């Protein structure tokens, strides 16, 4: 079965909606592992009373995304899991999502597979994967080049986000877990999938497996809405900052082909320094 690892910190209503959507899946061949990193809003009690079937692991509030996910993955691997999915708690899963992941995993048994992301407010597709150009620092949005009638099945990408990310055990056996030392929160998923791709694994977005998200609910979006010098600093240097310069620099030196590093750094720094001000 698929072991689904979900790190959480507070926001119990998001967690409840996520788990309820999983309970409505047409294929119930999965196990949920929640990593609760010190929630103080009653998440622990809710999980114990309403979802006793869920495995709950606990942190002290200092795990952040990457260490939390790794804790859940280690737990799953010890249980003999051969299929793992990482998921954020602010996700509502389409009822056929697990069914469609199994379908395409059978055809691509060693591929990492992501999901098509829809806006939970209006149901419109908002993310269908990207292909990165190291020289320009730009990403080609797959949704922009695929006509709507062809938005089905698998589409190859260069990296994948961690929300609804299917990973076969063979990947962990070859490249290990997520890099929590270099990337404690953001970019860890992109780093991991780039690493997997270099190791020979294929990456796809599965347009038949859909998840619904709340883009405006992310901490970085909130930071951008309330612009200030303090928030600008957090955007660039905080562990949860969407433009974290340290993590971006580490990501570049670890993943970018050496001849393109100066171009990618220059473009990336410019986007991060100016993007906060204009968006």
UniProtKB/TrEMBL annotation:
Taxonomic source organism: Pontibacter fetidus
UniProt GO MF annotations: transferase activity
One Pfam entry name: Glycos_transf_2
Name recorded for this polypeptide: Glycosyltransferase family 2 protein
Keyword Transferase: yes
Highest taxon of the lineage: Bacteria
Family matches, as SUPFAM superfamilies: Nucleotide-diphospho-sugar transferases (SSF53448)
PANTHER family, alphabetized: RHAMNOSYLTRANSFERASE WBBL
Glycosyltransferase 2-like domain span: 4-130
The UniProt record lists the keyword Transferase: yes
Keyword terms of this UniProt record: Transferase
Lineage: Bacteria, Pseudomonadati, Bacteroidota, Cytophagia, Cytophagales
């Amino acid at each position: 079965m698929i072991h689904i690892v979900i790190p959480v910190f507070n926001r119990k209503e998001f967690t409840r909606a996520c788990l309820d959507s999983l309970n409505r899946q047409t294929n119930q061949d999965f196990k949920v592992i929640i990593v609760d990193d010190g929630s103080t809003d009653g998440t622990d009690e809710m999980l114990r009373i309403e979802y006793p079937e869920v495995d709950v692991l606990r942190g002290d509030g200092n795990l952040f995304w990457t260490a939390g996910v790794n804790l859940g993955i280690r737990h799953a691997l010890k249980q003999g899991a051969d299929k793992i999915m990482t998921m954020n708690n602010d996700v509502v899963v389409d009822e056929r999502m697990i069914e469609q992941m199994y379908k395409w995993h059978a055809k691509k048994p060693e591929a990492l597979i992501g999901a098509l992301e829809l806006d939970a407010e209006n149901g419109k597709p908002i993310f269908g994967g990207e292909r990165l150009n190291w020289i320009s620092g730009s990403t080609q949005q797959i949704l922009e080049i695929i006509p709507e009638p062809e938005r089905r099945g698998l589409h190859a990408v260069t990296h994948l986000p961690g929300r609804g990310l299917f990973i076969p055990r063979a990947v962990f056996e070859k490249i290990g877990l997520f890099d929590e030392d270099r990337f404690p929160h953001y970019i860890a998923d992109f780093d991991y999938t780039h690493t997997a791709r270099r190791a020979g694994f294929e990456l796809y977005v599965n347009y038949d497996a859909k998840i619904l998200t709340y883009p405006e609910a992310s901490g970085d979006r909130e930071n951008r809405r309330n612009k200030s010098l303090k928030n600008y600093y957090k955007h660039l240097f905080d562990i949860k900052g969407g433009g974290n310069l340290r993590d971006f620099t580490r990501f570049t030196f670890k993943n970018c082909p050496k001849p393109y590093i100066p171009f990618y750094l220059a473009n990336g720094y410019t986007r991060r320094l100016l993007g906060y001000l204009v968006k």
